[in-house]
Write a structure and sequence with these properties.
Structural class: alpha/beta
Distance between the termini: 142 Å
Radius of gyration: 53 Å
Number of strands: 39
Strand content: 15-25%
Length: 704
């Protein structure tokens, strides 16, 4: 450049002039480089200059070419060099050969070193040489000779306008692509992009490589469900692929056609219902659980949408299959409030549900009632269900549940109905989707686990009064232990108390008489002993009292006969229990132990009485005629007692009312009217008894 060829420069400059014939012009290119670049060029230029070397070796070093002088013109080059154009006379035929250009190392290394070869500014080969102004200023510059075509244009990529337009186009295209990607990502929920990490480590790994995450898995759904639904510190990363919780998540992420987002209000609700479907083997349900379509060549899941259910009216009703694309409130048995779509109830009774209740069911925070009775549920009641703030009714009777009723369940203080009855020795079979037969009489439905003992624990202990809204407590046919706590008296709304056939011990607490709304009290077949509270007459709504097959004794309180709404009074078969040498209790019926005293004439106040069973107790006295006022009496058992005398005619007239068997079965009025011990007079004389019994031998024969 002009700046490089200035008079004041201190650089040593070497002009290498190569001639080339192009028309009437001689092209001269001046280029500069440092010593290191010259060394690099030396290697790359060997192949290109091989022909010149061979030509030079043939002609000898002294063979120079004719260089003609003319007027020079400076032309800048696009690469930052300079081109000198010299006007000259045309070459003749002999001058068409270019002058040989030796390699830089063949030339004099330093300017001024060999004056003999540089006389008059030319080398022995006839090349012009420019002398350095300052011999010690800087390193040498190396010049390479190239051809110049006056008609040639600069390469397209060196065109400034082209580069500007190209950059602008790239920016516009990138912006368009970014906008498109954002729009598609937000708009298409169901499209999963795969992000694959390539492991360049060649060593084998001993842990499975995690699957690539999809955009659904990165959308926050997993974190939301882990934080808001999963219980007991569970995380999806630690679950196997066949874990119902993981299966429900996979369905929510990839198979559910609703494709909910992490901020959808029904995400928790829909996930928990899906979890119930996977936990309780919905494919085996009697109604509306089979979402699978089986064809000749394939099985496709989550495609069935509709199902028909036979209603109690005898007509078919249409519902939606569980795990279908419909709103979960339309699934069979799901009951939601109409205005907000919030799940309020689950009714799946008698539908062959198989498995264990997941604790995550407790996260249905607005659920008010659960009816899963008559199925094949096993395992324990999740303690987390005690944290359900709106639960009013829990019906689990007729399953194969076991274990202690959790104390946490007492914290469900709005609970009005708890029915966990019939878990012990309740035979019911279901067939699972994998072909297994589940029988509720066995622990977890499997004979290999032994018999199922049902629900256990001191459920009626001192914490029972936390159920301050309780109206119906049904826990019969289980293995519940402990005593009847005095706290039972605090359940002022209690209407039904059915806890028979358990292992409950102790006295009936006096506080129980505060239950003035109680209608049914079933305490039979337990270990209850002692007599009735003296103020039992205060339980004015009591209609059905059954305490048979216990160790109770004593006189019936005077207030007992004030229970004017009484319909069924079962006091029969009092037990006498003794402990044998092996510390085991042996119990047997005894007519010598139990309730005693006479039947008060005030029994006539119980005008709604339909069943009076007093047999196998040491009652004495006679049958009062006032019993004839009980016009609805249909069953009367006074055999195996010490009641004597003649049956009053007022009672016999009841045989024309209800004191006979409408079903055709014989035996509704039993008394000891057979000869005692076959030879003695009978204990009682009766002309209207349906069956007469031998007091000593206990043999009863129909007397009609």
């Amino acid at each position: 450049s002009n700046n490089q060829v200035d008079d004041n420069t201190t650089s040593r400059i070497l002009y290498v002039v190569a001639t080339h014939c192009t028309g009437n012009k001689l092209n001269l290119l001046i280029t500069m480089a440092d010593e290191n670049r010259r060394k690099k060029k030396r290697k790359s230029g060997k192949k290109k200059s091989s022909s010149r070397r061979s030509n030079s070796s043939e002609e000898g070093e002294g063979a120079g070419s004719l260089v003609m002088t003319g007027e020079a013109e400076y032309v800048p080059d696009a690469d930052g060099g300079a081109v000198v154009v010299v006007d000259q006379e045309p070459f003749n035929g002999e001058d068409m050969m270019p002058a040989p250009v030796p390699e830089p190392e063949a030339m004099t290394a330093e300017v001024g070193g060999d004056e003999e070869g540089q006389q008059n500014g030319f080398t022995e080969d006839g090349l012009a040489v420019a002398m350095a102004v300052d011999a010690g200023a800087e390193d040498d510059y190396v010049y390479a000779a190239i051809e110049y075509d006056p008609d040639a244009k600069p390469p397209l990529h060196r065109n400034r306008r082209f580069r500007v337009y190209t950059c602008l186009a790239i920016v516009l295209v990138a912006a368009a692509v970014a906008v498109t990607v954002i729009y598609v990502t937000k708009g298409a929920k169901g499209v999963d992009e795969q992000y694959t990490d390539i492991n360049v480590n060649t060593l084998p790994t001993f842990e499975p490589t995690p699957s690539p995450l999809t955009n659904r898995e990165q959308s926050g759904i997993i974190e939301q469900i882990e934080a808001g639904v999963l219980q007991r510190g569970a995380v999806f990363a630690n679950m196997t692929i066949d874990d119902p919780r993981r299966m429900a998540l996979e369905w929510i992420l990839h198979y559910d056609q609703m494709q909910l987002n992490s901020d959808d209000v029904n995400l928790y609700q829909r996930y928990v219902l899906a979890l119930l479907a996977f936990s309780l083997d919905s494919l085996a349900w009697y109604y509306c659980g089979n979402h699978r379509m089986v064809n000749a060549n394939e099985t496709v899941d989550f495609v069935q949408e509709d199902c028909d259910v036979l209603a109690s009216t005898g007509l078919l009703e249409s519902h939606k299959v569980w795990l279908s694309s419909a709103d979960e409130c339309e699934w069979y048995g799901a009951k939601c409030s109409g205005n907000d779509g919030v799940l309020r109830g689950l009714e799946l009774m008698g539908n062959d549900l198989i498995g264990e209740l997941p604790p995550e069911i407790s996260q249905l925070r607005f659920l008010q009632y659960i009816a899963f009775n008559g199925n094949c549920l096993y395992g324990t009641i999740p303690p987390e269900m005690g944290s359900m703030p709106n639960l009013l009714s829990l019906e689990l009777q007729g399953n194969g549940l076991s274990g202690a009723i959790p104390e946490e369940l007492n914290n469900a203080d709005k609970l009005q109905l708890l029915n966990g009855a019939m878990q012990y020795q309740y035979p019911y079979q279901c067939v699972a989707s994998d072909g297994r037969v589940v029988n509720t009489i066995f622990s977890k439905g499997d004979p290999e686990n032994g018999y199922n003992w049902g629900l256990m624990g001191d459920t009626l202990g001192d914490n029972v009064n936390k159920w301050k809204s309780m109206k119906g407590l049904h826990l019969f046919d289980n293995s519940i232990t402990g005593t009847l706590s005095s706290a039972l008296g605090d359940l002022k709304y209690l209407v039904f108390l059915r806890v028979h056939n358990n292992a409950i011990q102790g006295l009936i607490p006096n506080e129980i008489v505060k239950l003035n709304k109680l209608r049914e009290m079933y305490l039979y077949q337990n270990g209850v002993f002692g007599d009735f509270p003296p103020d039992i007459g205060l339980m004015e709504d009591l209609q059905d009292l059954r305490v048979h097959e216990n160790e109770m004794w004593g006189y019936l309180p005077d207030t007992f006969w004030k229970l004017t709404k009484m319909k069924k009074l079962w006091l029969q078969d009092t037990l006498e229990c003794e402990q044998d040498e092996a510390d085991e209790w042996k119990c047997m019926r005894s007519r010598d132990k139990g309730f005693q005293g006479s039947i008060s004439p005030e029994v006539g106040n119980m005008k709604k009485l339909s069943q009076l069973l007093l047999n196998n107790n040491p009652f004495t006295g006679v049958l009062p005629a006032e019993l004839g006022l009980c016009k609805e009496l249909s069953r009367l058992h006074v055999h195996q007692t010490f009641i004597t005398g003649v049956v009053p005619n007022e009672i016999c007239l009841l045989r024309d009312e209800e004191l006979f068997d409408h079903t055709g079965q014989i035996g509704v009025f039993y008394a000891d009217c057979r000869p005692n011990n076959k030879t003695e007079d009978p204990y009682i004389s009766c002309d209207c008894c349906s069956d007469c019994c031998d007091h000593t031998h206990g043999v009863c024969v129909a007397d009609d």
